[in-house]
Write a structure and sequence with these properties.
The protein has about 150 residues and is mainly α. Helices cover about 50% and strands about 5% of the residues. The protein has seven helices and two strands; from the N terminus they run H-E-H-H-E-H-H-H-H. The chain has a two-stranded antiparallel ribbon. Helix 2 packs antiparallel against helix 7 and helix 4 packs across helix 5. The two termini are about 35 Å apart. This is HTH_Tnp_Tc3_2 domain-containing protein.
């Protein structure tokens, strides 16, 4: 039995992940200036900013997308922010949690790790966003995680 038929049998369809618009050099400079002006902001200032899907940037024209399989109507975008937080938290905690299991297990891990992260670590990750964005813009390679 082929892989395609097995996916169909389990009601999984093949999709290509969303591709984002490439950044122009002018857009990179504008974004960098915007973050540099706000580099002294505190937690309360940043909390008033809402980053939407447009903040997901692709810095190179080819992101080598691979196909993903999921059930029709299922969107993993609701998990995107949780997964990003999980991976950042996992890096801070020395990768002590394995990357095993299904989506429910991952959500359980996210909730558990969210409760274990010290507030100062969480705040440090939050305040590192401008520095990380500046580094990505200056490197001009790869794409940001969304």
């Amino acid at each position: 039995m082929t892989v395609y038929r097995r996916l169909i049998e389990r009601n999984l369809r093949s999709y290509r992940p969303l591709r984002h618009l490439s950044l122009t050099p002018a857009h990179c400079q504008t974004t960098l200036r915007w973050f540099l002006v706000r580099s002294g902001w505190n937690h309360d200032d940043w909390r008033r900013i809402v980053f939407r899907k447009e903040s997901c940037l692709q810095l190179c024209p080819d992101d080598n997308r691979s196909r993903v399989s999921r059930r029709p109507g299922f969107s993993n975008t609701s998990l995107a922010s949780q997964i990003t937080r999980f991976l950042s938290s996992r890096a801070c905690l020395g990768r002590r949690l394995p990357l095993l299991g299904n989506a429910d297990f991952l959500i359980w891990q996210l909730e558990k790790i969210g409760q274990e992260i010290p507030q100062e670590t969480d705040t440090g990750l939050y305040h590192s966003v401008p520095r990380r964005v500046t580094a990505v813009i200056q490197a001009r390679v790869g794409s940001t995680l969304c």
